């Protein structure tokens, strides 16, 4: 059963996530307000960030950095800064 959410990233009604992918309050906020499409865009950015900055998800500081970037990207319209990456125009 699919559910729609008003996606704060896309600024429109869109299919929501099937389950909460991220723990805690931020995870609930993402589940309630972010669409599958926006989450997929974030996941692409997340992989680039982890690789670029050689993040280790066992490291609390690295997880906090990634979480801050996720919130800025999904809820505040800030693109992720990845050194050496130029988006296709």
From TrEMBL:
Superkingdom in the source lineage: Bacteria
Alphabetical UniProt keywords: Iron
Pfam families given in the database record: Iron_traffic
Keyword match Zinc: no
SUPFAM superfamilies per UniProt: YggX-like (SSF111148)
Function: Could be a mediator in iron transactions between iron acquisition and iron-requiring processes, such as synthesis and/or repair of Fe-S clusters in biosynthetic enzymes.
Similarity comment text for this entry: Belongs to the Fe(2+)-trafficking protein family.
Protein name: Probable Fe(2+)-trafficking protein
Lineage of the organism: Bacteria, Pseudomonadati, Pseudomonadota, Gammaproteobacteria, Alteromonadales
């Amino acid at each position: 059963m699919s559910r729609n959410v008003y996606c704060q990233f896309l600024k429109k009604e869109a299919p929501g996530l099937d389950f909460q992918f991220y723990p805690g309050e931020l995870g609930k906020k993402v589940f309630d307000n972010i669409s599958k499409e926006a989450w997929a865009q974030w996941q692409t950015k997340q992989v680039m960030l982890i690789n670029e900055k050689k993040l280790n998800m066992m490291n609390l500081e690295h997880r906090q950095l990634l979480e801050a970037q996720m919130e800025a990207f999904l809820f505040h319209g800030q693109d992720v800064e990845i050194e050496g990456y130029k988006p296709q125009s």
